[in-house]
Amino acid sequence: xxxxxxxxxxxxxxxxxxxxxxxxxxxxxxxxxxxxxxxxxxxxxxxxxxxxxxxxxxxxxxxxxxxxxxxxxxxxxxxxxxxxxxxxxxxxxxxxxxxxxxxxxxxxxxxxxxxxxxxxxxxxxxxxxxxxxxxxxxxxxxxxxxxxxxxxxxxxxxxxxxxxxxxxxxxxxxxxxxxxxxxxxxxxxxxxxxxxxxxxxxxxxxxxxxxxxxxxxxxxx
Amino acid sequence: xxxxxxxxxxxxxxxxxxxxxxxxxxxxxxxxxxxxxxxxxxxxxxxxxxxxxxxxxxxxxxxxxxxxxxxxxxxxxxxxxxxxxxxxxxxxxxxxxxxxxxxxxxxxxxxxxxxxxxxxxxxxxxxxxxxxxxxxxxxxxxxxxxxxxxxxxxxxxxxxxxxxxxxxxxxxxxxxxxxxxxxxxxxxxxxxxxxxxxxxxxxxxxxxxxxxxxxxxxxxxxxxxxxxxxxxxxxxxxxxxxxxxxxxxxxxxxxxxxxxxxxxxxxxxxxxxxxxxxxxxxxxxxxxxxxxxxxxxxxxxxxxxxxxxxxxxxxxxxxxxxxxxxxxxxxxxxxxxxxxxxxxxxxxxxxxxxxxxxxxxxxxxxxxxxxxxxxxxxxxxxxxxxxxxxxxxxxxxxxxxxxxxxxxxxxxxxxxxxxxxxxxxxxxxxxxxxxxxxxxxxxxxxxxxxxxxxxxxxxxxxxxxxxxxxxxxxxxxxxxxxxxxxxxxxxxxxxxxxxxxxxxxxxxxxxxxxxxxxxxxxxxxxxxxxxxxxxxxxxxxxxxxxxxxxxxxxxxxxxxxxxxxxxxxxxxxxxxxxxxxxxxxxxxxxxxxxxxxxxxxxxxxxxxxxxxxxxxxxxxxxxxxxxxxxxxxxxxxxxx
Lengths: 221, 640
Fold this sequence. Notes:
The structure holds two protein chains of two kinds. Helices cover about 50% and strands about 10% of the residues of chain A. Chain A is built from nine helices and four strands; from the N terminus they run ααααααβααβββα. Helix content of chain B is about 40%, strand content about 15%. In chain B, strand 11 (about 370-375) and strand 12 (about 385-390) form a beta hairpin. In chain B, helix 7 packs parallel to helix 11 (about 230-245) and helix 10 (about 225-230) crosses helix 11 (about 230-245). The interface between A and B is large, with 46 and 57 residues.
């Protein structure tokens, strides 16, 4: 899925990198040191295309990778929409599943979903911006939630949120620049006895101090 | 299990399940509800499995992972049947001792038992004050059921109410029973369920829907979640009975995707019911067809409103629509749709099984049966409690909840979620039912009950709810969209010490407008937290506005932290913990807070040992000058 955009981007530099190094590196899948299994996208082919079109080979490779990604996405999306028989009323359910697998909803994916379900793109955007579960930007690898439910609130949850914000340096709803953390506030996690609560990757912490937050955050890869 | 072809088949199956079970055989139940799960119940469960195997007890002891037992404060909880021995706050390390002492040597592990305030140990769950004052008709089954096992539910008599309804009652009889029972909607409104069912039944159209509202969005409320997670079949059974009465063949469960365990347990339960022929075509050979679709909500508080929820099921944005015609008549795809809350549906099998007269014998004149509350906030025993209607708030908070922690003073109890209100101490003795709470300016709501003590600022609480509601307002109607924003900005101003004399009056005016003109219940009830706090805690508003003082010491802009030089013992704890290094001092040197650097994070206040209590919050008056740096600590005699 498009969440692997990171992969697509890293492939951008790979041909040039390989050129400098030894072509027979253990990681390369073909003898020519190119990542793609498809021979048409071999290094030579890319260089030829690059000369003919007057664009750097890296750009072409990135473009091809994007196209390939889009085709893969389209198949994956079709699987999800098919599970709902392509029913228009399943739009929210389809988006929820994509959000869960991919952690965010890229524009290309929204377009593809709308084509398959036959709904206008405006409706998908309306839903994606209305509900809290959806994100139109990439999410961090680790989700940090601070509960702002009433029970936690009266037990000083705002102070806990301040501590978390100060420690990781981002505001609720934001993702850190290295895409490591996304901080969000939630309204009641149903474990009020522990309040105020912070949850990191599904682990619950009851009223952690500044030092504990630092430890928890540093333990994340 | 084979498909059940008749109601007699169901009874045969139950007898078969029961014959395989030995009631005298020990059964260890481990609560795996959300609270206990967060406290590590899964590790405890695994430890039990390992330890049972290690001692070769596999064939002598049963183990069951169940839904929420309710006493979240003391989780993880284990109850060992048949003796009902209750161990609280257990860790995986305690498991070997429990197995060797309680199961093998048949003795109690004293240190894991509940201890009352006189130091008496209590072994049986039902004797613990938290449980003793409850009447757990709906919630009580949770601890006997593995939510993933339909057999457990059937063994307890599950689906017998459905069998009774389908084989011996006509839809009208079912409807009549629910009406006579005067079952009122547990989701907040308290509308009589029977009347709603009848409206849908009599509405024109062949296709009708029944829906479970499990979009439990009230912060601080989690009973619907615990019911769905712990005993999903009870809700399904109620729904099928309702569908039969209403004449519907398609049901929906609208459940928040934030409750993944509820979604998965429910999905499993629906599949099990289908396999057994309890859902699908010709249920138990009655000729009645019915099935259920799960719709996961994507996180919007307003989508719990009936018309908004139905919009969402249609795949649209979950915004309310004007209800000139009730959803009971024109709901999903403009067809008659009957929506009830999780807890309401879970009441239905009990009423059908035991009769309307039994149900009306519990509760008050206008509110029958029991209600589950989530008792949270500044209370000793946080958890889910099920009590008969008519019990007083005082009984819930003090007898069941064990009062306020750390000897603090009770200030208010907030019921009804963001649409409810805050009631002061003088209202603690009113009977809890739909009408009494509304009269007092609050409401029953879905059952959140948040206890607040003297350290809670009521203006801040009002601001919190309005902030929540302004964020959750869909923005479709102007009063709610613009009104809440205005109220929030005024409350923000007051909390920041910039309140104006006329602010209270303007808040009241805005509240009136919202109540009269908002499109849906969210907007109409949104002013309740403000109105009730102004009504009962006006002095706090005035202190914020006139004296720039926050009596509870909560509003950051109005407080300062100060170390009392006479009490400071230079222990260096606050100095080390301060995240912004605003505290200076040294061994034997009185610590001083630099007011410029202080971010008012409350850390020093929390870490200062209670025997010193040197860190104080100051509000409404200037911070006294700190002693010059280097002043030595005044040690109290004998306390060196």
